[in-house]
Design a protein that fits this description.
Pathway: Steroid biosynthesis; cholesterol biosynthesis. The chain is built from 21 helices and six strands. With 475 residues, the chain is mainly alpha-helical. The structure holds NADPH dihydro-nicotinamide-adenine-dinucleotide phosphate.
């Protein structure tokens, strides 16, 4: 367990370990209790603008072949009015609504009704019932980890349809892309609103709810920490992974099918985007148990940020490269393609190894080898809201000794590779790297603020031992 109290586990003593006798944690180290004006402003900006940003990107592809400046220039020069653009936007359709309902229902069924069997025959895969981290209130939730199985079955069906059954065209997602956007928005808003009401009136764990007194902040960042329906339907695990991340690879496949339909072939850029993003998605499901220890599940409350973000932002903006390549069938030169592939693979390697090092370190309570050596450790402690003292460790070796968030660097390299696969014709496919750079930089700061209040002096020791956040010597 990442930060579980381990009273019966003998502590692994390391010659480099440092024990902190003082604890500076406040018992509640999670989401903020009070909102400053900057946070409030950012939240209101995002609540108002994020849905329009998504619409703008998708509309720019649909009506302006992905030229981001196209709509602005047309409006500024009087060639088009907002109402003209809106009139050309496909509305929600019955077909899209049925498709989306079927999709979400299918994913709910896979999540709730099919206990994991992959862990029974896949060596090294950890699935089935697993425990999450200790919440600020001291609760340890159990999760049914069956995302890999859901991903495999969904894709098996997709390929069976494409090659044998022909129930629907593989271009179905692209063909209904904007009508589906409205459906995704309806679900995103519905689930976020439901989670907010649930947090106030019938929370799953009242001790893990947080109220700031500010409606917008509560709505955006969530009130409940781990909202659930029944014993197993966990909102965060479901909405984070499925339908959004399962859909990611299907969306890319549909874009590839559309490219073939329109241009007669699938370009190497489209193949690269499909392959590199599929590695990332499969990695996510292969490591779903590890994911229980990441910030999304361990620390974020479930509000609009996760609910709407997982339903709309993720499937629509993380797939922009594939969408762009439908309109611009870029064929890369061999050196360019190899360069992109290498960047993507090296990025993935850093991302995976860094995340694995921390996971292994925490699972074995430090009794493991990192880069062939006994890891350097900083012993740390914190107090949960129930007053219980917990002990944990911070890793100072491997990538965690290079920089405090080197796993993000790997992620950023992979993200850049997806963008570079699209060539240099337009800005739109580069949105992803810009967004990821902002997201992960902000995440560094947010996480460090939280860790500092959780571990106090112990965290200061870690920052002294590993002074840089992302890139040694730079940041
Ligand atoms: P991390 O996996 O880096 O987890 C941070 C937590 O790890 C900290 O809160 C702390 O938790 C613990 N920790 C920090 N330093 C150490 C250390 N030295 N030794 C041991 N434990 C430590 O963060 P994320 O959840 O943000 O990221 C997980 C992965 O997901 C990353 O690779 C990231 O790139 C990726 N990601 C991708 C996104 C996307 O949209 N594509 C979005 C967000 C993340 P504790 O309280 O347990 O000590």
């Amino acid at each position: 367990m990442a930060a579980k109290s381990q009273p019966n586990v003998p502590k692994a003593k390391s010659i480099d370990s440092v024990t902190n006798d003082r604890t500076a944690s406040q018992g509640q180290w999670g989401r903020a209790w009070e909102v400053d004006w900057f946070s409030l402003g950012s939240i209101i900006f995002l609540l108002l603008c994020a849905p329009f940003i998504v619409y703008y990107f998708i509309m720019a592809c649909d009506q302006y072949s992905c030229a981001l400046t196209g709509p602005v220039v047309d409006i500024a020069t009087g060639r088009a009015r907002l109402s003209d653009i809106w009139a050309k936007t496909p509305p929600i359709t019955r077909k899209a609504a049925q498709l989306y309902t079927l999709w979400v229902t299918f994913q709910v069924l896979l999540y709730t009704s099919l206990p994991d069997f992959c862990h029974k025959f896949l060596p090294g895969y950890v699935g089935g019932i697993q425990e999450g981290a200790v919440t600020p209130a001291g609760v340890v939730n159990k999760y049914q980890i069956n995302g890999l199985q859901a991903w495999l079955l969904t894709h098996l069906l997709w390929f069976a349809n494409a090659h044998l059954l022909s129930w629907f065209s593989p271009t179905i997602i692209f063909d209904n892309w904007i009508p589906l956007l409205w459906c995704a928005n309806i679900l995103g808003y519905a689930v976020s609103t439901f989670a907010m009401v649930k947090g106030y009136f019938f929370p799953t764990s009242a001790r893990d709810c947080k109220f700031t007194g500010n409606f917008f902040y509560n709505y955006m960042m969530g009130v409940e920490f781990n909202p659930r329906i029944g014993k197993w339907f966990d909102f965060k695990l479901f909405f984070n992974g499925r339908p959004g991340i399962v859909a990611w690879t299907l969306i890319n496949l549909s874009f590839a099918a559309k490219q073939r339909e329109l241009h007669g072939h699938v370009t190497n850029a489209m193949v690269l985007v499909n392959v590199l993003q599929a590695i990332y998605v499969i990695d996510f499901f292969w490591n779903e148990t590890w994911y229980l220890k990441t910030i999304d599940i361990c620390h974020d409350h479930f509000g609009w940020y996760l609910g709407w973000g997982d339903c709309v932002w993720l499937p629509y903006l993380y797939t922009l490269q594939g969408l762009y390549l439908v309109y611009h069938p870029v064929q890369l030169s061999t050196p360019h393609a190899v360069g992109v592939l290498l960047l993507g693979l090296v990025g993935y390697y850093i991302f995976r190894v860094a995340n694995h090092q921390k996971d292994l370190f925490r699972r074995t309570d430090g009794r493991c080898l990192i880069w062939g050596k006994k890891p350097k450790v900083i012993e740390c402690s914190y107090t949960s809201a129930d007053g219980q003292r917990h002990h944990s460790k911070l890793l100072v070796s491997g990538f965690w000794g290079v920089a405090r968030h080197f796993n993000y660097v790997g992620d950023l390299m992979g993200s850049l590779a997806y963008c570079l696969a699209c060539g240099g014709g337009h800005l739109l496919p580069y949105f992803y790297i810009i967004y990821m750079a902002i997201l992960l930089t902000h995440r560094c700061l947010r996480d460090e603020h939280r860790c500092a209040s959780k571990y106090g002096r112990d965290w200061e020791r870690y920052t002294a031992a590993v002074p840089y956040r992302l890139l040694p010597g730079i940041f």
